Each structure stands twice: as C-alpha cells, then as structure tokens.
Amino acid sequence: MPRQLRVAIVGAGPAGIYAADALMKSDAAQDPGVSIDLFERMPAPFGLIRYGVAPDHPRIKGIVTALHQVLDKPQIRLFGNVDYPGDISLDDLHQFYDAVIFSTGASADRALDIPGIEFDGSYGAADFVSWFDGHPDVPREWPLDAEKVAVLGVGNVALDVARILAKTADELLPTEIPPNVYDGLAANKVVEVHVFGRRGPAQAKFSPMELRELDHSPTIEVIVNPEDIDYDDGSIATRRASKQADMVASTLENWAIRDVGDRPHKLFLHFFESPTEVLGEDGRVVGLRTERTRLDGTGNVVGTGEFHDWDVQSVYRAVGYLSEELPKLPFDTLAGTVPHQAGRVVEGDEQLPSTYVTGWIKRGPVGLIGHTKGDANETVANLLADHRAGLLRTPSAPEEDAVTAFLAEHGVRYTTWDGWYALDAAERARGEAEGRERVKIVPREEMLRASGV
Q: Does pTM top 0.70 for this prediction?
C-alpha cells in the first residue's frame, strides 16, 4: 500500500511555510497524501516576520495571518525550539523523511571592510533589529548613549534602524515591543540620524511606502540635501524601467526642495557619500569619514577624492544580511548561499539526494517577503519531480511517531503548534492588560513555559 510522502522543512519562517503550502497545494497532497514537519530553532514560528520586521510595521506583520492558515492544516506539524544540527542532524532527518528542505534564512550581518569598523559603538543592523524585536538569544539591553548616529546603507533595513533610533519610546509603545525595549528606547539620547548611500537617489533600494513612512512621525524631520539629487543616463534609464525606483526618487526630490521644519529629531538622507573609515579615540567611535562620489554615466559611481568627516558617536552598518553555513551542506561563503540547481542542493557536479533549499539560503537576502513564494514553488516542483522519478532516498523510519520518539529519547524540549496558540494567548493577555494588541515575551525559558513545555 502506498504511504504518505514525508517531508521535513528546517526553518519555520515565511520561506519554510510557503514551501509547506506549495506541497499542500500539489498533486502529492492527494491520496495517499503528504505529511510535513517544520523544525524551528526558536520556540515560536514565523521567523523574519517575528524577529526581523520592525514592530511599527503591522501591515507587514499581518502576513502572519496567511501563514497561520497554512500551519493550521492537520497534515503539518511544528517542532519549535529544535536546533539544526545540535538537536537533529541531516542524517537523522534522512532517517525519518523522504526529502529535507532547508529554509533557514539569513540572520547575520554582512561584513563591511573599512578601518575602524570594529570600534565600540559600531554595530551591525541585524543585531540591533534582534534587540528591538525581542529575540530571546541576544542581550536585553542596548547602548543608546550617542546623540548623533550614522547608518550605512540605503535599503529597508537601514530605514528600520534609522526610524527606530529617531522615534520616541512612546511612539512605539502601542506596538508589541517588550518592556526592556521600551525602557531602552526611553533612555535613547539620539537627536540626529545620518543615513549614507554611496550612489544616488535612483539607486536607493528603499521601497516607496517604507520611505514615505519616515515622514509620518511627528518627531522626525527628514532632510535631503538638494545637491544629492542628481541623475545620469543610467539613472534615468533605471527610473524609466522601475516604477518603484521612480517613486523613491520623486519622494526624495520633494523632500529636497521643501523647507526644514522644527521636529525635534533630524534624520538626514545622504547620497553620493561612500564610507571609507570609522574614526575612533581610545577604541570608541567618534566620527565617520566618507568620500564624495559622482555618477559615471552608467548609474555607477566613482570617487572624487573629496573627503568629509561626520561628527557621530555610533555607526550602524546595514549593508546586507548573510546566511550561516549549515553543517553537512556545501556553502558559498561569498554569496552566503547553498549551491543549488533550481532548489536542488548540489556539491560540485553532484546533486545531494533528497536535499533542497528555498528562501534566502537559496537566493540570498534580496527581495521582499512575497518573493519567497516563487522560490518555494520552484523548489517544491523539483522535489516532486524527483519523487515521481524515484530519485528520493527511502527513509528507514517514516512513521510520524518515529521523530517524536527520537526527540524524546534525546531530551529535546520542543514546542508545537498548539504551544504557539498558548504562547500567542499569553502575549495577547499581556497586551490587553496594557491596552495593546500584544506584548512579546522575550526570555526563551518564559516562551517555553507559556507554550506548555
């Protein structure tokens, strides 16, 4: 009698859940069906949505509603608080499943190789995001004693960092931020935030909506230097080819020609300034040096040899995320991705049997959350093609209770989908007591207890 196709997905963020959804919508979900287990190292699911999206973006966090509907399906199980490979290895997974999909995302900061980047007061954006999003595995406090801060990068993460630094704690209080984050932001001394991009307005990677939201705060004055509004033939072509790029450039143009108002916190968006050195004294940040750049006709820039020193006491680099290397899998350290062919993991010229990737570990940390749907569909289509062709490994213990017995035998405390409902209720109860929708629980042990573990 044919048995269900058993698939393990490592990582229960949007990419992993979209892969589960693609499997459930495929022909494989018909008799005898498919059985899917998601393994997540955090006690709670949703990955980037819970721990990578700024708390004042409820519209983006609303994606959880759709993801929730996927995880509600009885053919899908969640095993939270399970670490790969510490609690379960690739060999273990192949013992229980026909195929394994890795969707572990990207949570580390990409390095920026300039002098002084190691000084105290120089931070990675990912670390700061983890703090204000209440990640259980980072310190509870964040140093916010600088009055003037530089943010390096012109993507949405840079905007999130700049906005959270410039907003008041009371503006963020209606969100889900936990008490330690509110207390930290209440003591924040920042009055100026300077965001630096080495190219021009047409090359900025902001999304139009996120950029415009900067100007919605009653405490943030967004300032753009008119001299930074410049385009060459390559820039004009970019604007014509991309509605998003054109909208971003138009917004920046409008800000550059308006009078500067009197909101207390100033947020400067600088273009054509390439960071060359973090300046320091006694091992601490005291400034940032940039080189003025100019367009070369193609939309790229070259240095002018003109340097400027900026009076800042902290520097946050938001130059991209990087995935962590996964044991037992090949890894491209430069790209920060697992080598693959349309989602099939490959090492050299050989395909690793029954092993697949999707999301940022597959294509790198670019694009919006919704773009991971296409990744998932491609990967799942090829997994199922391999299944039909008889190319998947046959697990030695495909029974659903085999993996639960393994985790119990090895003393792994894991959370479940029912446990998420319990944790969700506990966070909402805390929020209700304060007139908010939710207050996030931060310590891992508290999350486990609230999840019934």
A: yes
